[in-house]
Amino acid sequence: QGQLVESGGGLVQPGGSLNLACVASGMIFSVYTVSWYRQAPGKQRELVAAQARSGTTSYSDSVRGRFTIDRDNDKNTVYLQMNSLKPEDTAVYYCNADYQGPYDSYTYWGQGTQVTVSS
Questions:
Q1: Mapping DSSP to helix (H, G, I), strand (E, B) and coil, where does residue 98 land?
Q2: Mean pLDDT, each 10-residue run in order, the chain (119 residues)
Q3: Are 103 and 83 in contact (CB under 8 A)?
Q4: C-alpha span between 3 and 14 (Å, rounded)
Q5: CA 95 → CA 17, 25, 51, 74, distances in Å?
């Protein structure tokens, strides 16, 4: 059974930076598409950034140019470097790993880590 554990959240001032990490276990990490989602109070969960097994990345318009997703398959870890943080980035951030194969599919979620941007 796969598991994802996030870390690195916290309180940061506007304009600051945080680096989130998500460590995977119980899966062949390299074949999964990995993503970061976030959910602010009263809002739906939204996709922030994703990285395919090929290494191709994609970002939401709201974070492009400020956030960077990067995976280290040797460490079974995906990172989200967040720079120039804004109050509207405040949310619980979730890690997701998804595999869609020809015969089966798997998706896993982490427990979430709180990011608060406030002065």
A1: strand
A2: 95 98 95 97 97 97 98 97 98 97 95 97
A3: no
A4: 32
A5: 18, 13, 12, 18
- What span, in angstroms and rounded, lies between the C-alpha atoms of 39 and 93? 7
Count other Cβ atoms within 10 Å, centred on residue 92.
Answer: 18
pLDDT of the residue at 2:
93
Dihedral, CA of residue 108, residue 86, residue 71 and residue 23, to nearest 10: -50
Strands 91-100 and 33-39: antiparallel
pLDDT at position 17 = 98
Task: State residue 78's pLDDT score.
Answer: 98
Residue the block writes with tokens 């960077």: 68
Backbone angles phi, psi at 88, to 5 degrees: -75, -5
Res 40: pLDDT = 96
Which token pair is 100? 């869609």
Query: What six digits make up the tokens of 23?
Result: 């460590």
- Residue 117, C-beta contacts closer than 8 angstroms, at least 6 positions apart: 12, 13, 14, 16, 85, 86, 87, 88, 89, 90
